[in-house]
Structures are given as C-alpha cells and as structure tokens.
Amino acid sequence: MLALAIQGIGGMNAFAAGVLYEFRKNEIEPELISATSGAIYSTYLYLDSNPEAIQQYYEEFTEEERDLIPDELQFMRNVMFGVSGKFRPIHPMERFAENYPFSEPKQWMNFFFPAKVFHPTYPDSFYEKMAKRFSASSVGIMINAYHYEKDKAILYLNEAAMMKTNLEPGETKDYIVKEMSAEGIRNSLQLLQYGERKGEYDGAYQFNPVIGPLKKASKIILITVESIEKSLHKIENYFDTQDFLLKMLFKNALHSELRNIRLINKLIDEGIVTHQRYHPIDIQIIQPSTYRGYFDYFVEDYPFFQDGIKQGSEFISKSHSTWR
Fold it and tell me: pLDDT above 90 covers what percent of the chain?
C-alpha cells in the first residue's frame, strides 16, 4: 500500500501542489492520503476529474501576484485589508464590543493584543464541495484538526480511509476519529489568528501532517514545506525568528514520527520484532529546494509550485516504477 503524507501552511502550499500535479501526470496513485491545513485544498484539486486542474488553478491564482511588489509589502497589504474571498481583518470596534466595559486588565490586554485578528470569509460551498469529493473518493483521505481542551488530534476520514486504516468513529488514547464532513474541513483550516471554532483549531499546530495511521502502508511519501534536514535561511531578524519557531513545530513532530518508523524497521531487520502486525515501512521525503519565509505566509508563489513539479519529477526519475 502506498500512502502520501502532505504538509500544508499558507504560502507554502504551492510546493505540495506541484508535486501532486507531477504525480497525477505520471499516474502515481496512492491508496491513502494524510493532508494537513492548506494541503487539504491541494488534495482536493489532485482528485479532480481534470488532470490539469492543479496547474490551471495555480496559473490563475498566482497571475495577479507575479508583479514587482515586494513580498513584505504584499504581506502588509494582506494584514491590513485581508484577502478577498478568504479572510478579513477584525475591526477594532468588534474587539471593543467583546471586551467592554474594560473593568479588568485582561480585557484591555485582549483589546490591544488580541489572539483573534482575522475572520475567514470562505463561503459554505467551499467546504461542502471538498467534503463531497473526499467522501466519494476511493482514495482514503484523512485530514486533521486539533482539539484544544482535550489536547488531541481530531482525524476526519472518508469511508475509504476508515477501511484502510481500521479506524472507526470514536475516541482513542491518541485520536478523536470522526467522519469526513464540511464542518470537519472548516475546523481543520481554522488558523490561530481566526480564533477557535467549536473548540478546534487547524491541526498543523500539532501534527503537520498526521503519519501514525499511515503505518498500515508499506510505502510512505512525505511531502514537506521546507527542508527538514537543514535550515535554508539564516536567522537574522525578528521575522526570521517567528518563521523559525513555526517551522520547528512542523519539523519536530515529523522527526518524532520518522524516528519511530526507523526504530521499528531496525528491530525488524535485526529479528527482535517478529510479530505479524509489524512490517518494514519504506519512507521517502520530497522537500523544497528553495526557501519561503515569514512574509510569504499569505502569498502563494508560482515558482514554488514549479519547484514542486521539479522535485516530484526528480523523485519519480530516481524511483523509476517502484512507487507506482
């Protein structure tokens, strides 16, 4: 069984989309996909009946951003005015109403330094069309949100994913498992800056992506948003620091999962683990060769999409037919 594990976040989503486009062209079909945050939409495009859907989307989506405006200015524009059809900034008067009458220091703090600074503006149809396609797919699709109070990952799975992972709706010591739904997709895209939604946030802050249930597969391809082997950028200012902190969240969760897989493989190779429930897992990583930083979180870049195509093509060439 072949599984894909796909990282996603902001302006880095284009890379995974490029890899998926190249896989689609070369008819590499996984049986399971674990997608987190913005990679959820890339997966939706990957499953489109039109094999050119990903390419067409990124050509159209990034066309208006192929200009001479520096990334820093585009970032500030999006912070101040939002992105049409995606999110808008929370007006100060909205925060004023939430904290009035300012009788406690905490209310002043929440007004001047709020956690919730944007409001998502995607229409309901955005989530509903994804849920419909995922639910109908024979490819097992798993996405994840984070339950703040229970400190657990919430896994939203379509029927095919439940069959292939042997997971079923309910709560385990590791996960809360639910059926795929438009509501689940909405919650899985709920950034910290949007505030919580029914106690849930975007799952990327905990697992980006979830790999554990994919261990039923014998082969896993992990697609990342940044090189997990080394940093591609020096830490020179405050914004580099913030970018580093977020990237380290992603890296550390992955390193833990990768170490577990490598340990089991080693124990199997040495004959220490012989139980039939355990099997070797061949895991390979496809990662960017270029860097996207703090000011790129709101802006998807077409060259980054092209880098995904390039890295996906090189992976296929090196792997020949063993990953088909």
Answer: 70
- Taking the C-alpha atoms of residue 319 and residue 154, their distance in angstroms, rounded to an integer, is 33
- Helices then strands, counting H and E runs in the chain, come out as 11, 11
Task: Please check whether residue 144 is in contact with residue 153, taking contact to mean a CB–CB distance below 8 angstroms.
Answer: yes
pLDDT in tens, 314-323: 999 987 656 5
Q: Burial, 152: exposed, middle or buried (Cβ in 10 Å; 0-12, 13-18, 19+)?
A: middle
In this predicted structure, what is the pLDDT of residue 291? 87
3-class state of residue 242 by DSSP: helix
In three-state secondary structure terms, 136 is helix
d(CA 323, CA 269): 21
Residue 22 vs residue 59, higher pLDDT: 22
In tens, the pLDDT along 25-69 reads 999 999 999 999 999 999 999 999 999 999 999 888 666 555 556
For residue 141, how many C-alpha atoms fall within 13 Å in the half-sphere facing its CB? 26
- Rounded to an integer, what distance in angstroms lies between the CA atom of residue 29 and that of residue 324? 7
* Peptide bond before residue 105 is cis, with ω within 30 degrees of 0: no
176-185, 257-266, 289-298: least confident range: 289-298
Q: Give the CA angle between residues 187, 191, 194 to the nearest 5°.
A: 95
Alpha-helical runs (H) found in the chain: 13-25, 39-46, 53-63, 71-81, 92-99, 105-112, 124-136, 159-165, 182-187, 238-269, 302-319
Dist CA 262 CA 309 (whole Å)? 28
